[in-house]
Amino acid sequence: MNYKIDIYGFNQALLDECFNILIEEVTASNYQVTTYGRMPHGFAAPYSLTLLLHGSNSKNVTNVLLDFDNSAKDHNYDIVLTPKALALDIETHQNHYWCVLSALLQSLHDTSSAFLTGYLLDKGRSGELEYIKKFNSSFNVTMALQQGTIATRDN
Amino acid sequence: MKYSNTIDTISTIIDSHGFESTFVSYNFPIKIATATNQNLRSTTDTGVVQQGIASAIGGNKSIVFTEQLQAHDATLKRLTRSFCVIITTTPPPIVFPTIFTRQLSDLPEDVNTAALVSSKSLIPVVIYLGTTALFDYTNETTTSSSHERVSLPPWEQALDKPVTQATLSDAQALAHETLSTILPKWVDGILGNEIVSHSSSEGSFVRFITPHAISDTCQLINDKISAGRVIDKDEEYLSALLYPFNLRQRMTTFHLKNNDNNRSYLCPGCPFIEISESVGENNSIYTNVNCPEAIRFFNLNTVSLGEFSSLASTSKDPSSMVFVDHLHNYSSADKHLLAAGGIVFLNTVGDSSKSFKVFSPSALKSVKRQTSALLFPYSCHNIPANKSKKIISKKCKCTANGEEPTCIINTGCPALVLQDGKVTTFSDICVGCSGCKISCPYGAIQ
To answer: What's the ipTM?
Structure first.
């Protein structure tokens, strides 16, 4: 129930939105949250930070890669959530950000995507909601986790 | 409860503290923008601190963002009439009182403290923004600004005179005293005998140091600390500071997995794309432009112009060597360094270029580089936004042949993406620099 999530993304505005929803969701599930930022490499380098979610006293940590734009090279993680792994195209309208976030919320224990759906409904962003629905109907995250298709860690 | 990132937090701080002058060096790793401050000036690393201090001496509330503080920046000719806060990201030489900010949530309060101390002691105060705070999120952005000067120190009459060593020493002592009362004494805050630099919640790091008390602080660290877990950059700094005590052996370095895990992405319109194309593979490029992405991508050698001149003068084939840097870092006094090798200066539009001979970029190949300096009209911060490039799908043959797209591999441009098996451009990001057009072997980009 402890998670270390490495987050990468280019679009700062969307990253901010996703981060705020994620924080709201995990704090509602009573995870203790710590963030470590990372120094950006250059102006065009992806923003990246690490999120530690403490959910138990156990020393076991599940390493998660949350890479919104396929920008990380190393995929040696317990759970890999990238557009490539989730069979998503990187779209110019960038709706794939919401699908990757939705997949993360489905992968963590005790979290749901209620805040995500509520946020998009409040903002009247029906296009994004439709896109998430389409993704959820075409890709089963729970099944993929069980089958290990989005977990590529070399154990 | 809204969380905001480092960029927004810094913008809020600048606006809420009423800084009248903001100086940002080109190499500062994050973009700084403010809503209300009209006096934001981007400038080169060389001299950015001096400009900020000069502005504060003139009575403006100044804030400076610089990638690295140089030892020669410590030359303080006069005391500052208003406060001056310098924010740096590389472990600095301790030339002014320095506050260490480990987490973004501490930054608003630390800027407040720095402004107060600078205002009282009439000397600039430095904030070292740690690696973990450079892109992070916090929900604490508001702070009470209590940096109005209540009473002036006894050396107020020295404001209009050149500063003396005795006055400077008094000012440092006052700064140390003020910092000690506001910030917790770091040695008392350490849990056990360990120093932890990557999180203020798990342990402590040095909270502040003044040049006045470096030796005392070092002695305290040596006596108190038996072990430590520090981030690589902090470890560099600590080992330099504590070299006589051999503390390095007691430290465990904590590496943030960033340097190697990102693919390289150059800025759209990166001038190095065209320069490297023109120079060719057989020639080596040297630079003083501190861009980690370009250095990794093009395998550049980092040297200063002086070092390059020495290298070129001793080389058997100076014509195969090219040096690239921003023109603003040099004046006509540096002309004697242009003796050998090829030199390309990156220029910003509107800057005077009278000191150097000017060539057009298309002439880059044909110029005899042994004797001349080139002026390239692109600078890292002056990428012209031309018309977005379009890809003619009929001519785009790399993906059709099942190969990796040459344009994406050669340019590393974030505006180029593979969508549905075809290369497309993000019109929002594309600045029309023609970097991809140069690299496409099939002429598919127009």
So the answer is: 0.86
Task: For B150-161, write each residue's pLDDT tens digit.
Answer: 556 666 666 667
Q: Read off the tokens for B116.
A: 């107060």
3-state secondary structure string, B292-323? HHHHHHHCCEECCHHHHHHHHHHCCCHHHEEE
Q: If you average pLDDT over residues A113-140, what whole number do you get?
A: 91
Secondary structure of A77-110 in the HEC alphabet? CCEEECCCCCCCCCCCCCCHHHHHHHHHHHHCCC
Q: Which residues of B touch A41 (CB under 8 A)?
A: 29, 258-259, 262, 292-293
Going A64 to A68 to A72 to A73, the CA torsion angle's sign is: positive
Measured between alpha carbons, how far is B48 from B115 in angstroms, rounded to an integer? 18
Distance (Å) from the C-alpha of residue B429 to the closest C-alpha of chain A? 10
**In angstroms, what CA-CA distances link B319 with B282, B304, B324, B325, B372?**
11, 18, 14, 17, 11
Query: For chain A, which residues lie within 8 Å of any Cβ of chain B, measuring from their own Cβ?
Result: 6, 8, 10, 12, 15-16, 19-20, 23, 34-50, 71-74, 89-92
pLDDT tens digits, B341-389: 677 888 765 554 444 444 433 434 444 444 456 777 777 766 666 778 8
Q: Residue A81: which pLDDT band, with cuts at 50, 70 and 90?
A: very high
φ, ψ at B417 (rounded to 5°): -135, 155
State yes or no: pLDDT of B291 exceeds 70. yes
Q: Which residue of A has its CA nearest to B129?
A: A39
Weakest mean pLDDT among A108-117, B109-118, B241-250, B428-437: B241-250
The C-alpha atoms of residue B364 and residue A12 are separated, in whole angstroms, by 36
**Inter-residue contact B81 to B110 (CB < 8 Å):** no
Q: Of B287, B277, B441, B440, give the one whose Cα is nearest residue B364.
A: B277
